[in-house]
Structure formats: C-alpha cells, structure tokens
Amino acid sequence: MTQDPYEILGVSRDASADEIKKAYRRLARQLHPDVNPDPETQDRFKDVSRAYEVLSDPAKRQAYDRGGDAFGQGFGGAGQGFSFTDIMDAFFGGGAAGAGGQNRGPRSRARRGQDALIRLDVSLAEAAFGVTRELKVDTALTCEACEGKGTAPGTSPVTCETCHGQGEVAVVQRSFLGEIRTLRPCAACRGYGSVIPDPCRECSGDGRVRSRRTLTVKIPAGVDMGTRVQLTGQGEVGPGGGPAGDLYVEIHVEPHATFTRHGNDLHTTVTLPMTAAALGTQLTLPLLEADLERSEDAGDGEDAGTVTTFDLDVRPGTQSGSEQVIKGFGVPSLRGGRGDLVVSVRVDTPTRLDPRQEELLRELAAIRGEETPDGRVQAPHKSMFGRLRDAFQGG
To answer: pLDDT digits over 175-197, tens only?
Structure first.
C-alpha cells in the first residue's frame, strides 16, 4: 500500500512550503541515525526524507496531488535521492548549501574590502590638543579602466557552461540512506555563475589596482598612545568593485622633554637649590601649550587658550619630593574636561663648597643646633600599592 507523504510528515494537503519544511526538520531531528540508530527508526527516516523530497519540489507535489504515484515521483523509488543540504538545514536551521546560512545560488563578485591599519607619530602637544595631518596611503583602489567590473572594455561576463549560471553543482554519493545529493561551488567559475573570458588588462580581472592616495586626517584632542581613529570606508576597495573597508590610524605619541603623561594628568619635575627650597621662591614654568606656538601643524584645541606659562609659588621649607597640583592644566579628555599638571620638587644639595660657603653653612648649623644631628630613623615610606598589598596580606 502506497504511503501518503502528507501523512508521513503530519501536515495537511494545503500546508505551505514553510510548514512542510518545519515538519521535516522536526522529524529529522528525532529520527536521524546519528540520534537514534534503531533499524526501524532508520527506515522511517528514509520515508520522511523521501516524503519531503516529493512535497518540497513544486513539480513533484503537483503531480502527486493530481493522482500521480508518489513512488514514481521519487518518493520510494531507488536512484532518485534527496538533498543532503535539507538534512543539514534540519539540524542547523538555515536554508543554505554553504556555511553561515547564505542563500543558495551564485555568489557576487563584489565583496567588501579589507580594513587597513597605519601608524601615525604625533607629539605630546598634538595628541593633547588635536592635529590635522595629511597621510599618504598605499591601498587598493577601484580600477578606472573597467570601473571595478574586471572585464575588458566592451566585454562582459558570460554564463558558466558547467553550472549554467547557478554557481554550484550537485555531487551524488551513495549511502545506506540511498543517494545523497550535495551542492558544491562550481570549480569552473569558482561559484560566481559566470566567467570573464576577456579580463581587464589593468587589474587582471580583479576590478581594483594598487595605488597611493593622500588623505586628510583630523586627530581629536585627548588621544593617547595606542588610540585608533577609525576612518569609515577609507580602507581597501573590495574585489569586483565591492565597498571599501575601514582605515584605522593608530596613534604613537613621541616622548616629551619636559612632561610625561599619566592618564589625563601631566607630570613634570623642577629642581631647586636648597636655599630656594628653604626660603621659598617663585618660578615661571612653561605649559604644554607653549609647544603649539612651535608646531605649524597643531590643531586648535577647545581648551588650549593662549596662556603658555604658569607662575609657580614655592613655599618656604619645601621638601624634596613634594608635589604641587595645578588644576586644569593637563590633557583634555576625549569625553570633556581636562586633567591636572603635577609638579614635583627636587632639592639640589651642593656637592662642592668654597671655604666661605662652608663657613656660612657651619654657622647656620650652629645657629640651628644641627652641628651633630642625631637623624630620624623611621620605617620607609610605603607607596599606595604597598599599603594595599599589606592590607590584603593582613600586615
């Protein structure tokens, strides 16, 4: 007795193609030999696969609905086979012969180009306040001779004779399930469905050529070492006239003679003679903004202003290693605001004294009662990280 493919899949005669596919997927997951090796289950899986072969093909389904023999339409007959792709769809969802769930059929010659990465060396002031630079980039550009098509002028691609424009061919293999038909990219046209008999001489059919071009890049204020600025669509042009990738400009900040950067703060050290540290003084310090006057390429930072120096008041009795924080004179932040300038003081003790200087210092020591100092012995100062470590270790 001939079995009804609708009954085997458990769908009505007016079921849509999507309903039929869902029913097949559900049964295939339950009955596949890798899941259930029982011989009776394998026989039922064959019936389900053959039923789906009939109902998933509009011509076969129409012939069966008109009274045709399901076995005659490949439902139970040997040698008709079924698509291995449909089994893969049942387990992995997707309606594709290829990976990633892409649609079946010829693939486009136009593909997105690769991203590109270049390094840009900037000064600390340029990184802090922004800069506009012109960069010369060697990259792939659209071939002007063929406008990215890859064909010689006056010619066009022709349909592949092997796959007849489908971009894929069926490979049939025998198994215990019968004949399994697998779709693979056509080797003759590499899956494009067409071939280029007369490629462009300038690009050899790739649709792009390598050339040098000049780009104007605006680096925002506040970038730091390793920051990458993305230029959308300025990377490699894709094959076949495809869209360009992105260009990433990686910032490398050159060392500065006066300042070092920690986050958005600038640090510098000023060295004072011991007399100035003891008596106090006022110093005029250069700010990072002073570099802008010496740089012709530096951009105009929003907070750069026109002030290039700062008057630092050194209090009497300033100790070596002490710090003064000057608010708002650091590096502008990419998110707004600005860091601080941290000035460290180092007291310079003289190593050579003439007789008069030595006499004066000895007189000062006598006045202060420091001729034979005892010295103060104490535990060494611990850094913040040292204190945190001792806290975790219970010390």
So the answer is: 666 667 788 899 999 999 999 99
CB atoms within 10 A of CB 329: 22
Q: Is 70 helix (H, G, I), strand (E, B) or coil?
A: coil
pLDDT in tens, 20-41: 988 888 888 888 776 777 777 7
Q: Residue 208 in contact with residue 141, Cβ under 8 Å?
A: yes
Structure letter (DSSP) for residue 67: T
Which residue ranges make up the annotated binding site? 143, 146, 160, 163, 186, 189, 200, 203
Residue positions counted in the chain: 395
Using alpha carbons only, what angle is made at residue 112 by residues 93 and 154, rounded to the nearest 5 degrees? 115
Selection from 50, 4, 6 nearest residue 28 by Cα: 50
CA-to-CA distance for 250 and 227, rounded, in angstroms?
6
**Binding-site residue set for Zn(2+):** 143, 146, 160, 163, 186, 189, 200, 203
Written as one letter, the residue type at 369 is G
For the chain, the maximum distance between any two Cα atoms, rounded to a whole number of angstroms, is 128
d(CA 222, CA 70): 73
Give strand pairing partners of 345: 270
